[in-house]
Amino acid sequence: MADGTSIAASGPLGGQTEKEAFLGFTRPQAIAFLVMVAFVLVSPFFLYPVFLMKILCFALFACAFNLLIGYVGLLSFGHAAYFGMGAYVTGYAAKAWGVPPELAILMGGAIGAALGLPFGWLAIRRAGIYFSMITLALAQMVYFFSLQAPFTGGEDGIQAIPRGTLFGIFDLTADLTMYWLVAAVFLAGFLLIHRIVHSPFGQVMKAIRDNEPRATSLGYRVEQYKLLAFVLSAALAGIAGGTKSLVFNIATLTDVHWTMSGEVVLMSLVGGLGTIFGPVVGAAVIVTMQNYLAEFGAWVLVIQGAIFIACVLAFRRGILGEIAHALRVKL
Amino acid sequence: MEDLLFELQLAMPQVILGVINGAFYALLSLGLAVIFGMLNVINFAHGAQFMMGAFVAWMLLAFLGIGYWPALILAPLIVGLVGVLMERLMISRLYKLDHLYGLLLTFGCALVIEGLFRNNFGSSGQRYTPPREFQALNLEIGDFFLPGYRVWVLIAATAVCLATWLVIEKTKIGSYLRAATERPQLVQAFGINVPLMMTLTYGAGVALAAFAGVLAAPIYSVHPAMGANFIITVFAVVVIGGMGSIAGSIVTGFLLGFLQGVTEVVYPPFSQTVVFVIMAIVLLTRPAGLFGRA
Amino acid sequence: MTMNRRTLLGAAATAPVWGALPFRSARAQAANTIRIGVLNDQSSLYRDISGPGSTQAVRLAIQESGITQAGINVEVVQADHQNRPDVGSTVARQWLDRDGVDVIVDVPTSSVALAVNTLVRERNKVFINSGAATSDLTGSACTPNTIHWTYDTYMLAKGTGGAMVAAGGRTWFFITADYAFGHALERDTTTFVNAAGGRVVGSVRTPFPGTTDFSSFLQQAQRSRAQVIGLANAGGDTINSIKQAGEFRITRGGTKLAGLLVFVTDVHSLGLETAQGLVLTETFYWDLNDRTRAFTQRLGQMPGNLRPSMVQAGCYSGVLHYLKAVRDMGVAAAKASGAEAVARMKAMPTSDDAFGEGTIRPDGRKIHPAYLFEVKTPQESRGAWDYYKLVSTIPANEAFRPINEGGCALVRS
Question: Any residues with CB less than 8 A from the CB of C12 and at least 6 apart, and which?
């Protein structure tokens, strides 16, 4: 695929090495990161914590999705499967077995990975549009399963999931305490993704995205790299789903429905595919929009669709991608 | 042995019904294949356009008093025209980009279309009654009753599928089309207007979806989500068939309808999942699909 | 320039103080204001049975309660939960935590209703559910803050199952949507069919969601020679199965179709030609008697030119009764404790034009009669929306699940 046509073309300064400020961030990225951390720390004192937690959960979900599309060039249209199953497993473990929250969230991540392994193995046999359609179809099977399996509670979902006590010390019932856990999970996930992208493994992933035959000829086992990226992405999506189920005390079919897969694509697209901070901004924008559009009924659908169209036609770089482009930096 | 024969005899009607449902899969996956072959775009709005076909037929009847037969021609034309506009205004801007953008764009279009119809027509669905003359086609053999309209669906869908196949494989226009799919620059150099061909192809693919929609209107309730119910199964059909050939998409469509019909008798709860299981098996054994080229 | 800027900054700094004054008076006023949140589906499946029509019904209830004349303000907010528990849960939390909403009304879709049920209890507010079907709201999930107003799955199963056998439909075949809701409807209805001396001869599970063609299943049902085909499904599934039953002339040999969850708007959408002969249970029908007709008249033009559904009528009836309790106990007390307000509602008999006279049980179940209807033929219908004829009335004390069978913790104490 020629340069500039790829769905997640390398950033405006792609290839060019920049001085690193810290943690492998370039200076603009470091500034953006500090702004983000500051916002995460300060905002709960001004904004409604539950609303912020929702944003953070979806931001992590979008970052996980972005790992696949932005750095391997694979557009999954079935990420709801991992997000939703993560929510179910975390919720069930916390409610039925009384598993402490930290462990329950990890179990959500584990189920995401366990599901991502066979699905990824099947899906990476094809690339491009076929890959998208296969992930969509597989996710649809997970939806059927969730509807049938007794432990998911069918269309009622798992209700009244207890938030529990973190490490046996912090009672998470209070929204603000829960918020700090969610913030920690989000930041850890975010840094992990950043770390992966900047590791030698991440470099190979990008090489595959940009020119797969070349990566193959260099002796890399492309399939294995793709699969590993897929599993990592699914695991993080599972963690995001699990955290969300604790925040809202529920895990339901909405989380595994294909519209959820579409939503996470939209978030990443709005924020900027292939940018590190883009999915976070995208998630914030879309969640805020859903919140304030709740009174307008079916217009939510129309407006979401219109944003999709506008992004694809006019702002393919997304919000952060456009900003980065204007400032000629990488974000 | 006799038991089995008896069982088969009982199952026959169900299998016939399955094949008739397969006609819808065939029409829809054919439309997708035609569009994909020429434009390299997976048309996510296909389900919404199917729904529009049914709604346009209903609106023609409810507001203008135009009946079924004219609607069978008019609705695909109208929706096809909307498709042409979509292609000119939006999709044509994306040809130089990654094909995934086409998928995302048409996904957005599907949301907008469905949302607008929900706002205007609520959610309970509208009714569309087929003309009485179909009752002449009613089949009644013992216990088994097959409404004439279903017989008509099978005839009409098969005829349209065959006609499309003939146009693409056997006519001059079809040969241009196939050539343009392989080597657009070269065909353009021969003085053929490739962008126009692309626009018309998209319009034709959309019209096929709308035609299926008109056929479906009297069977299913006409409501905004009727296409969304279909489209994911049709995507699986497309993956199974592979996007390689026009004939492949038609055959796969009917074949899966048949298989679903059988499953509906043998083990009903499995009849939706069967398509996805077959998809997984095909991917394992023939990743390019049954009729696809790798 | 700098001076200008400084003055501007100064003005900005004092702005919050100015802003705070009207805010404080709003707070003072808020003490005398009841806030009602109508939370339902405004965009998809349940828009026509609840949606904006529910809000209209709530406004009528406020107007007729005479509460404004008593010097109490009532404000209505509404939102679309899009049938998504996370959206519904976020909206409900914000309403309860930040916007001072005292009572949440309607909430179709069981998953959202159960989530709101928990939230309302934790914050000690009031939840009047009209739209959801799950009988868990007055069973394992019952709370002192929730009243389940209009209908539930148990009542639907008993009404259609029991009364239908009494009316002559002795053998049954079920077409069941293959998920928990469908299974529950089939199981409950089977119990009542058997109890009334009927028999279930078979059933078929249809994949959910995604089944659009039910003709194969309908023919299997027909071959069983059952007198009644029970449709243990909902929404689009029910509509498609009824429509295709008409197409395949399933009912030509005298077989009856029994819809276990069908609303009047569904019948309207199907049309009498297709829906004729269908039997179903509802607790409200606009054309039932003089009082329901008067109520429908007063509601005026409804969104989409529809007549009120039982869910919308339930929103009216529930809010009317709640406001009576508020007048009775005073705004301050009603706002202070939702459980107290609900206790007061339970202590008073209900009376309104939509459901007639009724009571609320300790487990939160609103009690009123249920009606088994049969859809008229096009010849029988005398005008627009003349759809039902009454087959039998299930008296209030028999219509719902006996209070000790639901497993509600409030009952034992």
Answer: none
